[in-house]
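Could you please consider the sequence and fold appended to this message?
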Amino acid sequence: MRSLPLFALFAGAIFIALSPIWVRVSEVGPTASAFWRVTLAVPLLWGLFAITRSAGTALEKKHLGLLIATGTAFAGDLAFWHWSIQYTSVANSTLLANLASIFVTLAAWLLWKQRPSGLFVTGLGAALLGTGVLVRASMEFSATALLGDCLGVVTAMFYAWYLLSMKGLRDRGAATLQLMAVTTTITAMILAPVTFSSGEALLPPSAAGWLKLLGLAWISHSAGQGLIAYALAHLPAAFSAVGLLLQPVMAASFAWLLLAEPVSALQCAGGAVVLAGIYLAHRGRSTA
């Protein structure tokens, strides 16, 4: 039975669901928290890779362009998402970021002529309808929530780019842990000058502030992403996609429990429609 990969999938989704909580309570700015998220994870990931030496094709100079693209996409994903979390609700920012799977299919359609099925179009329509409901709910959350929702959609675009680039490297046989170490390092290098020129608070003033950043880097990024990468290699793709829909649900739950962030009936309705749309879109990904 696949009990271990299944456990890894759900544990990884829960760990990643904690990331917007770390960002919201961070003692540094949104861009700075994105920088520390990857920078503090770099030594841990390289250490784990050195210990395990996981199987896979060694990365070479010919992979450099795709590696830079992956790191750049992830830098954009983190930066825009962390700002989204500051402006809108955790529920909305996380749900909208999960539209990435739909953007992946749209990119495959436009770039590689992989025509999607009618089921995908139905899912896309449902996701857009749900997004509209979430945006309507945002108008009641705060004056800046609409900007946060827009940043959440931009996050999904960058994350889709990241997933496509990562898939290209995985298709070339690169080991997951090595990929995480290299791309996380590149992301940190890209975010460094952006962070230092942002004017944000860069260093947390307390030990608790550093612990929050370590939680973001080690629990949400390293453990969360690593567990999901392990699970995806052992579970059917369709089941994994459905299992990962646990993440936005848990993120909203954590925000409600830990931050006392309310979730309105309108948000629940919009979120349910978005999740259903993502599920249908994934099921109808392509007709070949």
User: Anything to note?
Assistant: DSSP finds 14 helices and no strands in the chain. The first helix runs from residue 3 to 17.
